[in-house]
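Hello,

Our lab assistant flagged a job as stuck in the queue for most of the afternoon. It eventually completed. Since we weren't sure the result was trustworthy after the delay, we are filing this so someone can double-check. Below is the sequence as submitted and the structure that was eventually returned. Let us know if re-running is recommended.
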Amino acid sequence: MIVVTGATGHLGKLVVEGLLEKLPADQVVAAVRTPEKAADLAERGVEVRRADYADPESLVTALKGADKVLLVSSSEVGRRAAQHQAVIEAAEQNGVRHLVYTSAPQATTSKLVLAPEHKATEELIEASGLAATILRNNWYNENYADTIKQAAQTGSFVGSAGDGRVASATRADYAAAAVAVLTGEGHEGHEGKIYELAGDVTWTNADLAAEIGKATGREITYVDLPADEHVKALTGAGLPEQLAGFLVALDANIKDGLLAETTGDLRALIGRASTPIGVTVAEIADTL
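-- returned structure --
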């Protein structure tokens, strides 16, 4: 039995959908904070269990009988390590045979602003002794949905990433990799492996502007700002100062090349090329 945590989230839901294409529904468990939101999965025969990262007892119950568990990283930045520890401990208590975790690029060595909590989680997993696979997901194409929409409407967008490159792919690509690992496809013996998952083609913000222009039929300009001016632009647009600072720090990481590595691991696991950013841009543009 495979338990997927965060199964109503953007990534977790795609993983469950992918598993259902390969396995009977009674072999898949959707572990979610709000079971009512997974009613559609329950109707398809998936067992839905309550699993709140902040409620350790719920996690122990949710993972009962699991052979494999996909721990989709928490979205609560700053609280992730403790929440993940609760899942890891629940997996230990239930004798889970294989734990799969969605981490961040080069998590144990990177200066990426998001890396420390993932590093801490990977260390907790290693200390637990559980057989595990680490999926270090690069950026999602969908992270740029709001930027694409805004640029399509105004003709420009700002940032401070310079010519930094991003090796992104779609959530569906990363979900397909998780499904491959959970179902044993692609390679023999995923346990103990760390996969650096990233798109096949890297791109810059200037490239993104060109793709938006191609999809919308209008000229789109990317305006690169110094970091302090970028913060001012974001706060001026109504973002809280802490969030603005976080986003600018991410752009600095991109400028430094921390999201530019393409390893081929994603292509190998899913058996096809990753989805280019231009495809995502075109799909979003079609909805406008």
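-- support follow-up --
The delay was a queue issue, not a problem with the job. The result is valid. Residues 241-255 form the longest helix (15 residues). The CA atoms of residues 161 and 255 lie 5 Å apart.
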